[in-house]
Design a protein that fits this description.
Blueprint lengths: L2 E3 L9 H4 L3 H5 L8 E5 L1 H9 L3 E8 L8 H6 L5 E4 L1 H8 L7 E6 L6 H5 L4 E6 L4 H13 L4 E4 L9 H6 L9 E3 L6 H10 L3 E5 L6 E2 L3 H4 L4 E6 L7 H6 L2 E4 L11 H12 L2
Parallel strand pairs: 1-4, 3-4, 6-7, 6-11, 7-8, 9-11, 9-12, 10-12
Antiparallel strand pairs: 2-5, 3-5
Helix pairs in contact: 7-12
């Protein structure tokens, strides 16, 4: 195993962790799939379990014989860089919560059919741009009975470090895919409807039905469509859906954060 002590901040071998923004890592091996950085031993373990290839590891020195020991035994001969936590923080520019970062090669995304054809309940995210919200939605989807997730091109990448950290590694446990920029929502909607899905738009409208309406539970296949904070779903998206659904509120509260709303929706509609 190649374990290297970090002695200088300008070491080019660490550029993946120190110089490249996540959107640049996405194109790191262009035209092939790019790179992402996973944080914490648990999340890295789940990525390895899902078949992602490690490229290098940057870890706090104490993890060599501590929480990261089993991780080191799994990654083979990839380079391992070690430093004290304060050095790692200066290198990366952010506080590392679990002392280990791993650069990993992305895999080709599955098709919409691969994710959805045989699923009962799926999630469709339209332009959810906040990585924290995307991560929280993934965690709720995995925990509360969803079978897959489809993201439009305007969503934050689920493999962004913050998104996968908030998701607690469930990004690597629930099937998902993202639509390419050139693919329209209309064509994807038609494809999903061909698999038998009825679409549920989570939206605050006068014609919305309650999320606990029995008609929803009788549907064998549902696609739960959720939009970004503030603007919500586009009007044309709502029009394309079979149902418009709201979560009943009290105390004059008009809505929930999209991540909180997702947990309520997934729990109710997975029954």
């Amino acid at each position: 195993m190649q374990i290297t002590e970090i002695t200088e901040f300008e070491d080019s071998r660490l550029d993946i962790y120190t110089k490249f923004k996540e959107v640049q890592l996405l194109r790191y091996f262009e035209p092939a799939e790019g790179v992402f950085v996973a944080e914490s031993p648990m999340i890295i373990e789940r990525a390895l379990d899902a078949g992602y290839e490690p490229l290098s590891l940057l870890m706090e020195r104490r993890y060599i014989t501590g929480q990261g020991k089993e991780l080191l035994e799994r990654i083979g001969d990839v380079p391992v860089y070690v430093a004290d936590l304060d050095v790692m923080t200066k290198l990366t520019g952010y506080q590392i919560t679990r002392g280990v970062l791993c650069a990993m090669r992305r895999k080709p995304l599955p098709t919409v059919a691969d994710v959805c054809e045989n699923a009962r309940r799926i999630v469709v995210l339209e332009d959810v741009m906040n990585p924290t919200n995307v991560g929280a939605i993934f965690r709720s989807a995995a925990a509360l009975g969803m079978d897959g997730i489809v993201l439009t091109a305007g969503c934050a990448d689920p493999l962004y470090r913050r998104a996968s950290r908030v998701a607690m590694g469930t990004t690597f446990q629930i099937p998902w895919t993202a639509l390419p920029k050139h693919e329209s929502w209309d064509s994807t909607c038609l494809e999903l409807k061909s698999f038998g899905y009825k679409f549920v738009a989570m939206a605050l409208r006068d014609d919305s039905i309650s999320i606990d309406d029995e008609v929803l539970h009788r549907e064998p296949k549902l696609a739960i469509v959720m939009g970004t904070e503030g603007d919500g779903l586009r009007p044309e998206t709502i029009s394309a859906c079979d149902y418009t659904v709201r979560i009943p509120m009290s105390h004059n509260v008009d809505s929930l954060n999209v991540a909180a709303a997702s947990a309520v929706a997934f729990w109710e509609l997975s029954k």
